[in-house]
Q: What sequence folds into this?
DNA sequence: CACTGAGCCTGCTAGC
DNA sequence: TGCTAGCAGGCTCAGT
């Protein structure tokens, strides 16, 4: 499923391809794919618009228009944005059933949105709405302002289980289940660990792990486990770097050999090593 | 404030 | 071998 590295890869491939192109039309094949506003208002805001660039905020792709507004695309689980230079060439017919939306450009190229599970969302946001959206998202973990000190402040200001906290896009924008499990494993932190009780060494290790895991995955164009593809349809190469995600409970830990365990935390499957990722022992007073 | 559960979807897999 | 129940999961909303 696309998280920050996958979305960033799509952004990087699409930016030079879409920049300067003018939208000629929009077709919506599944009504719920369009999140906002109405289809009529969306077409009015978008058709005739020129793309000034493609940016990213967290897991959100922003196709910026010269008017200052932007088309936002969230891939969620199985969404794919695919650019095709020539709309007249033959499409992959087996995938047409999952084609949820199409943008055509005035030069005959097109941008297709495929999404098997229909969770993905496309919207148009005015400049004002973009400001509101920005305010709802947390720090960008690959930007320079994401320091260990900032992470410590974010974690210690809350008393929450670390895993749901790291998945909270209002706190840190872009992490999903794969990279959170990987980061917690590398920093040897139990997914149920209370954020407010983490020590400086663990927080520093977690910060290093998050930055390393994400930047490696970006360099390798993301992790393709099944559906994820870049804006040109290419799979990523980061899957070989995953150390724990995707392993089944009972599998020996790659570090210590203990059987891995699985818990459902905040409705997400979570794989971890109960030996490497210890919960602190809380001793309770005798009655 | 922190957490839980439902709902949105459909392909895949585990288990019979 | 063939079938089905349940899992997978990002995000929002309602409720405790």
A:
């Amino acid at each position: 499923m696309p998280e920050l590295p996958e979305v960033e890869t799509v952004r990087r491939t699409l930016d030079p391809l879409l920049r300067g192109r003018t939208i000629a039309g929009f077709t919506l094949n599944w009504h719920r794919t369009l999140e906002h506003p109405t289809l009529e208002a969306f077409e009015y805001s978008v058709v005739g618009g020129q793309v000034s660039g493609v940016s990213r905020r967290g897991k959100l792709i922003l196709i910026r228009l010269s008017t200052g507004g932007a088309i936002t695309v969230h891939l969620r689980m199985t969404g794919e944005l695919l650019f095709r230079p020539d709309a007249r060439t033959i499409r992959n017919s087996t995938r047409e059933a999952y084609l949820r939306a199409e943008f055509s450009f005035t030069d005959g190229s097109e941008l297709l949105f495929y999404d098997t599970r229909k969770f993905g969302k496309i919207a148009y946001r005015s400049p004002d709405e973009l400001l509101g959206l920005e305010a709802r998202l947390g720090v960008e973990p690959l930007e320079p302002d994401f320091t260990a000190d900032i992470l410590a402040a974010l974690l210690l200001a809350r008393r929450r289980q670390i895993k749901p906290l790291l998945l909270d896009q209002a706190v840190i924008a872009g992490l999903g289940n794969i990279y959170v499990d990987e980061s917690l494993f590398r920093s040897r932190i139990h997914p149920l660990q209370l954020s407010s009780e983490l020590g400086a060494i663990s927080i520093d290790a977690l910060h290093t792990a998050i930055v390393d895991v994400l930047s490696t995955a970006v360099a390798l164009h993301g992790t393709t486990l099944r559906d994820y593809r870049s804006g040109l349809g290419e799979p990523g190469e980061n899957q070989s770097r995953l150390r724990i995600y995707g392993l089944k409970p009972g599998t020996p830990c790659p570090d210590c050999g203990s059987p891995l365990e699985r818990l459902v935390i905040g409705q997400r499957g979570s794989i971890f090593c109960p030996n490497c990722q210890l919960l602190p022992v809380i001793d309770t007073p005798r009655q």
User: Anything to note?
Assistant: The first helix of chain A runs from residue 4 to 18.
